[in-house]
């Protein structure tokens, strides 16, 4: 699933906070925008078990 909301790729250098847009370019500075969605879940992730273990209660 693809997200329609995009964020300025240079917001850390050019803006005080993230600038969101639906277009391919930032409306404030004209830099390219990038997808804001996280990477998809991969059940074959070799380090996923260790990451999940760190988030378990009682750890």
Automatic annotation (TrEMBL):
Any GO BP: rRNA processing
Entry's family note: Belongs to the NOP10 family.
Record keyword Chaperone present: no
Function: Involved in ribosome biogenesis; more specifically in 18S rRNA pseudouridylation and in cleavage of pre-rRNA.
Species of origin: Natrarchaeobaculum sulfurireducens
Stretches the record annotates as Disordered: 33-59
Protein name in UniProt: Ribosome biogenesis protein Nop10
Disulfide bond keyword on record: no
GO CC annotation terms, alphabetical: ribonucleoprotein complex
Domain of life: Archaea
Pfam families: Nop10p (PF04135)
Assigned keywords, A-Z: Ribonucleoprotein, Ribosome biogenesis, rRNA processing
Segments forming a coiled coil: none
Record-level Gene Ontology MF annotations: snoRNA binding
């Amino acid at each position: 699933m693809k997200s329609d909301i995009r964020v300025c790729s240079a917001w850390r250098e050019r803006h005080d906070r993230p600038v969101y847009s639906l277009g391919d370019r930032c409306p404030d500075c004209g830099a390219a925008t990038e997808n804001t969605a996280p990477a998809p879940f991969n059940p074959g992730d070799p380090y996923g078990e260790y990451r999940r273990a760190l988030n378990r209660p009682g750890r």
